[in-house]
Specification:
By secondary structure, this protein is mainly β. The chain has no helices and 11 strands. Strands 2, 4, 5, 6, 9, 10 and 11 form a 7-stranded mixed β-sheet that branches. Strands 1-3-8-7 form a 4-stranded antiparallel β-sheet, with no helix packed on it.
Length: 123
């Protein structure tokens, strides 16, 4: 069972930046594709970004492409989401996700979720 712990959320003005981190308990972290999803109030959870086990393949939602960057450090068992040029519509709870898959990463995510971290962007 993979345990995921997010950190780095907070309140930031529009145009600002934040970096989210996701620390995984799994020693075989490199066997997992890692993803980020978000859920705004009154909306369904949506895909944000995913990265393959090696870091060589990434996919992004159109709404964040060019502003957000997903990365990972397999030596530290940690995934990151660098968020730049934040907009009020990026306000949501952000969730880290893990999927045991060494193939092409799926934007549907896997069965392991963190507890979420709140990101609030003020206008």
């Amino acid at each position: 069972q993979v345990q995921l712990v997010e950190s780095g959320g907070g309140l930031v003005p529009a145009g600002g930046s934040l970096r989210l981190s996701c620390a995984a308990s799994e020693r075989t972290f490199s066997n997992y594709a890692m993803g980020w999803f978000r859920q705004a109030p009154g909306k369904e959870r949506e895909f944000v970004a995913v990265i393959s086990w090696s870091g060589g393949t990434t996919y992004y939602a159109d709404s964040v492409k060019g502003r957000f960057t997903i990365s990972r450090d397999n030596g530290r068992n940690t995934a990151y989401l660098q968020m730049n040029s934040l907009k009020p519509e990026d306000t949501a709870v952000y969730y880290c996700n893990a999927n045991r898959d060494r193939g092409r990463p799926s934007i549907r995510g896997g069965p392991y979720w963190g507890q979420g971290t709140q990101v609030t962007v003020s206008s």
